[in-house]
């Protein structure tokens, strides 16, 4: 009564409570990943601490679902888009512009994103609204899927070859939009895709995603190669920037947010 409740009975109860907590943690841990648990078989205080740490790592591994779906309707376009940043490259794309579909499928495949896009755009006018608005919506979806950007690499870059074309792409998921685009095309269009729209598309993404995006054509002659190189390079750089890095415990910024 006067000994702070530390009766032999209570002490035993506490012991069993702690033991059960420890066992549950171990059970959860084992259920999560069937890996080497031999190191957990010795019941010492040190081991309990190790298990607690493992449990915390385990919780970090149970990541947020990085999927976003956005629907946007204006008088010019009607768009529904879903992206999963942790996908496998599956794409289901129908924009009404064959070459644009080809580019978006390349983007999904090489970034290992799952992407579904359906667009009813005013193609009777031209391809402008359709391509620009998909850029806006894709950027919004990327931003939404990224969430708080905790534990991601933030930066990604590549110099990607496609035959004679060589494309540099560098990304900072800084939250600050900025596009630097350096590309020269010799034809007005590839299929029904106007080459002027390449820059517009990436501009729209960088602004709606809050992304610093550099795309630079280092060489290239064939517009199909140059544009496809840009979409693939963007995909690879974005994949790298969105990858989780276990060493990054919070967001990769001295400000504390991105
Ligand atoms: Mn191609």
Structural account:
- This protein has 6 helices and 10 strands.
- By secondary structure, the protein is α+β, with helices and mostly antiparallel strands.
- The protein has 2 domains: 8-61; 67-242, Imidazole glycerol phosphate dehydratase, domain 1 (Ribosomal Protein S5, domain 2, 2-Layer Sandwich), CATH 3.30.230.
- Helix 3 runs parallel beside helix 6 and helix 4 runs parallel beside helix 5.
- Mean pLDDT is 88; it is low at 30-38.
- The site of manganese (II) ion (MN) has 3 residues, from helix 6.
Order of helices and strands: HHEEEHEHEEEEEHEH
**Average pLDDT over all residues:** 88
Global shape: elongated
Order of strands, main sheet, comes to 1-2-4-3
The number of helical runs is: 6
CATH class of the largest domain reads Alpha Beta
Terminal Cα span: 54 Å
DSSP E strands, number: 10
The assigned structural class equals alpha+beta
Q: Compute the gyration radius: what is it?
A: 25 Å
Helix share of residues?
40-55%
pLDDT under 50 segments (min length 5)? Answer: 30-38
What is the second-level CATH architecture of the largest domain?
Answer: 2-Layer Sandwich
């Amino acid at each position: 009564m006067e000994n702070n409740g530390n009766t032999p009975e209570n002490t035993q109860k506490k012991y069993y409570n702690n033991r059960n907590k420890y066992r549950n943690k171990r059970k959860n841990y084992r259920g999560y990943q069937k890996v080497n648990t031999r190191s957990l078989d010795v019941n010492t205080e040190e081991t309990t601490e190790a298990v607690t740490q493992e449990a915390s790592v385990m919780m970090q591994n149970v990541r947020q679902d990085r999927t976003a779906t956005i629907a946007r309707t204006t008088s010019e376009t009607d768009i529904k888009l879903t992206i999963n940043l942790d996908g496998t490259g599956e794409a289901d794309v129908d924009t009404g512009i064959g070459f644009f579909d080809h580019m978006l499928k390349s983007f999904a495949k090489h970034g290992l994103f799952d992407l579904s896009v359906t667009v009813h755009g005013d193609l009777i006018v031209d391809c402008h609204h359709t391509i620009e608005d998909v850029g806006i919506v894709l950027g919004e979806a990327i931003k939404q899927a990224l969430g708080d950007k905790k534990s991601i690499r933030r930066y990604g870059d590549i110099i990607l070859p496609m035959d004679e074309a060589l494309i540099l792409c560098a990304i900072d998921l800084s939250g600050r939009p900025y596009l630097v685009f350096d590309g020269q095309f010799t034809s007005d269009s590839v299929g029904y895709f106007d080459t002027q729209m390449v820059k517009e598309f990436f501009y729209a993404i960088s602004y709606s995603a809050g992304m610093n995006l550099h795309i630079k054509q280092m060489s290239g002659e064939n517009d199909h190669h140059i544009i496809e190189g840009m979409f693939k390079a963007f995909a690879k750089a974005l994949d790298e920037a969105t990858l989780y890095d276990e060493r990054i415990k919070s967001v990769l910024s001295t400000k504390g947010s991105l």
